[in-house]
Fold each of these.
Amino acid sequence: MLALAWPLALTNLSQIALVLTDTFFLGRLGEVPLAAATLGGNLYFIAMALPFGLGFAAAAMLAQERGRVARHMREMRRTLRQAAWLMLPLFAVLGTALWHTGAILRATGQDPALAEAAQSYNRALLWGMPAFYGFLLLRGFLAALQRPGPALCVSAGAVLLNAVLVYLLVGGGLDMPSWGVVGAGLSSALANGSMLLGLALWIRADRRLRRFRLAGRFWRTDWRRMAEVARLGLPIASTMLMEIGIFSATGLVMGWFSASAVAAHAVALQVASASFMVPMGIGQAATARVGLAAGAGDARGAWRAGWTAIGLGAGFMVAMAVLLLLLNEAIAAAFLPAERPETRALAATLLMVAGVFQLADGVQAVAAGALRGLKDTRTPMLIAALGYWGLALPVGLGLGFPAAMGPPGVWIGLACGLGCVALLMTLRWRAMAARGGLRVRRILKA
């Protein structure tokens, strides 16, 4: 599990490094550019829930097809092709929505100047969305083959490229004029394009991977397989939308307090997201390992893979919780200059709350990944709806406004919701693992 999980986790960390780089340089420009990129990024990641869901569904299908061994090359190629075709109408809808980011944010009561700047950021960023979706599909394909190394190498190169571009376009390196939030969005879009191109060229150059002929007869459609990707992917997308959406909604709520609250929220969220990338990678490894075992009819192997992943995710997040609780002020100081002491103090407080919910956030992510390996996606969706929107948001709003706790109260609500989701996801996996033999037989019959 570790051999597969650590490259996936580092690949995820490289993705968040793109955003952290933007946050670092935009924070030096002032609170308004940082807050605008945060608000725009919130909407962007809400839109990305659907591509993520379809990509994770394809990864689960690819793992089970690889586990069945017979004719796996043809089956994996067909699944990847149909998942790719789904992006065409998807990008048309999501791209149109993100193009009008300003109108959406103004409708939620955000400051018009922030909304306009956030729209400029998203209009540059959205052109990298199709490339990132293609990268997700190829990464899932390699994970099913237990070859995560190429995706890690390509992602690391993209981080370096993004750092150079942000330095030039946002930081004004080499005496270039700063492009502000537009430069940050454009840098990330180009980095996403480089990841897809790099991974495609890597697969093309590798003799063993080239045998799959992933681009062969790419124009052919398989409506049944496309429907299965959508059937599995939509609940996953809904689950991710609820999780991404609750943090994005929290960002919008911070806008009701002040621009300083949005900036502090941005710093705390980026740090918490960075730590979350590791259990997310472990969850992706769990999807692959559980899916491989399920496809091969090995119920005991699926049970062992899932619990191993949950234990690894929990152990890592306990360590991160201790780190955030002890070093919250130092981390906040690394992102925000001393000239803004109130914003820095608020960010340190939010980081302490983030430390409290680290364990729950990690466990729920890994358990959801293990359940995806068994193609169990609908119940996790319902659990997410209950925990995030039935508990986290009402509690957060109640503590933030009527209880007058302000931004920390909103984040305490997040901690309550994540705890609920983690408990229920673990119980769901326990129930599925206990009757794993029956579940595997159903998978094989299907």
Amino acid sequence: MILLLFFIAALAALSIGLHWLIEQPGSITLDWGGYHIETTLVVGAAALIATIAAILIAWAIIAYFFQAPARLKQNSRAKRRERGFQALSRGIVAAGAGHVAEAKRAAKEAVKNLDKEPLTYLLRAQVAQLEGDRVGAETAFHEMTQLSETRLLGLRGLHIEAKRRKDDEAAHHFADQAHQLTPLPWAGHALLEHHGAQANWEEARIAVEANLKAKAIDLPTAQRLRAVVETALALEKQAEHPSEALHLARQAVKRAPDLVPAIALIGRLLARHGDSAKALKLLEKAYAEHPHPDIAEAFLEIAPSESNAERLARVKKFASSVSHSPEAGILVARVALAARDFGAARKALAPLVAEGKTPTAQICLLMAELEDAENGPSGPVREWLARGSRAPRDPAWIADGVISRRWAPASPSPASSTLSSGRPRPSPSAARPRTPAPIFRRRS
């Protein structure tokens, strides 16, 4: 509505101006080149306007012809880019679907029509990976590192390729370069895994702090990893610097109260310092909360010179707070068998082999040992051995398919170097979580 009012006002102003110009007296005379032209003011003004319009039209026509090649080139480039992006889209979809031939054709077309488009390098790398061409993939990723907008993506790709060919030093190099540019979660985790594999625990501690600062991990995860690193340092220092090792282990338990390896180490170090009473009290309290075999082993090591009967009495008291736990029954049965107290061993194992229970392989073997020691070779011995061969496996430390009797700060598998969690009894589904969740842990 406002534009319409302005348009009407402009027409009115133009009409008034033309009327005023017509009413003005006078004429225009032009003498040029032997020509004498005389006309009214209105006609002269109209001629001037027409001349200017003709000049402008002529200039536009001339400019159009001069600019035609540039416009044609620009239009051609736009069409090429459109074809290139269409090919790029087809190629990414084909690569995601595993259609190697279509992805390869689309990649060639995209490279032909798109000059230094970052996504073309990614598509080329994907095609090379699908074809199993590791050299081609690394070449594409390396070219991506030359461009600022794709440098991090190229370093990630080179890191993955280095891991695939099991070149840990190269993988660490690329992760370190990426981490220096921007503290990304994958780079921080890769640095942490590398330092864990090399047992560079001080560097691993720095990497944990860097990951937390970059918000690549949350505070609870950082606390757990700090505790694992401090336990690893304590294990290294326990022989030559026991006091420092004790301080580190205590600090680890403060951060992660259920970190069983640190608790067991504190008990051993206290006993080594001659403070057996304090060690026993600590281990008894910890076993009541976490009835774990590693804590029980540390408890048994505190008084190695005692008799089997004395040890059995001490173990019964030790396990009484968690008598409902299978670990407590197994512990008492083991010590009772060593003391040849068959009644105590049978009583400890009875709840674990009662009707409706599914005894583990270790329980079946203990029952077979008990029957053999008490009654000699017999049918029950063979029966329990047969049941043990089919029984569920007992909880154990496991990482990447490697089962260990002892906890370690990092996975022993060459394919992985993730830090351990040291959690007492996780579920089987937690055996192989991805970083940053540690994977070296108890298997139920």
Amino acid sequence: MPEPTFLDSTELVLNMGPQHPSTHGVLRVILKLDGEKVIGTECVIGYLHRGVEKIAENRTYTMFAPYVDRMDYIAAISNGLGYCLAVEKLLKVEAPPRAQVVRVILTELNRIASHLFWLGTHALDIGAITPLFYTLREREEILKIFEDYCGARLTTHAFRIGGLQYEVHDGLERQVKDFCDYIVPKIDEYEELLTNNRIWVERLKGVGILTADECKQFGVTGPVLRAAGVQWDLRKAQPYSGYEKYDFDVPIAHGADTYDRYVVRMLEMRQCVRILRQAVEGIPEGPILAKVGKVIKPAAGEAYVSIEAPKGELGYFIVSDGSTQPYRLRVRPPSLINLQALDRMVRGGLVADVVAIIGTLDIVLGEVDR
């Protein structure tokens, strides 16, 4: 049977991206449409591929550390923590207590910064312009702390294998306490703007549903999984950097839709503040770097370490052949794994829902493509 002509066909194939503000980077989504209804999608990635994992094989362990900051550049500090923990596992060393507490402070600040950037851009995608200006204003206060600590704001290289890059600057504790007091009323303000906003609720409720079972099938983690009712957070399930010492909750929701993912991330920011208040009160004295030697040369073996990054489980698998360079390095980026579920989430929805669903996944293409 001959193919139907374009005018006779009810199906339309449409490219969304790679140059599209709502794809959050150079993501190309090929949409198969029946009018406004989405009946299938295909994601085309690779426009930002830099071969980070292959570069690792041609760099020493220390030289490669700044490269990971360029993957999820919205949460560079989390990338650095995961990599350092993986190499430390190979070396069978542990960062000193002082370094562990400062790592927690910086990564939790980074989690809030990531969620703030997500909230502003997600709201902008849907048509709410004002929240972006508010969230960038608050994120700026976090970036100032990062700049005071290590001189960088975006690709923040804060850690060293075995501990910290720098000693804590004078006034860090005061800065963090002031920020905690500052951010809580701002989160209240965002919720007042959005949580019960009729347009916001209608655009998000019941959109992009991904059930708990589907999340597990796709390997989806982070806020998307917790919004489906699964209380899985690696800071609680497999504690690292002393997270077992902190009192905090893992927020979950049960609607498994775009609105509940918004709710979970808002609650997570409040929990980050709880952790920060505890950590900043208990920074111990002592060294900031374990004894790892100037030349890092782990024994032959392999190690996998995963952490709870703002977007989900971020894992590093490193194989050592006993030299000063990794024999193999592979990254498990949450953005890439979560993006696998996009087709399932958008089928049956409208084109406008695709924008909302890409936003709710909170992907960064630097991490997807690597």
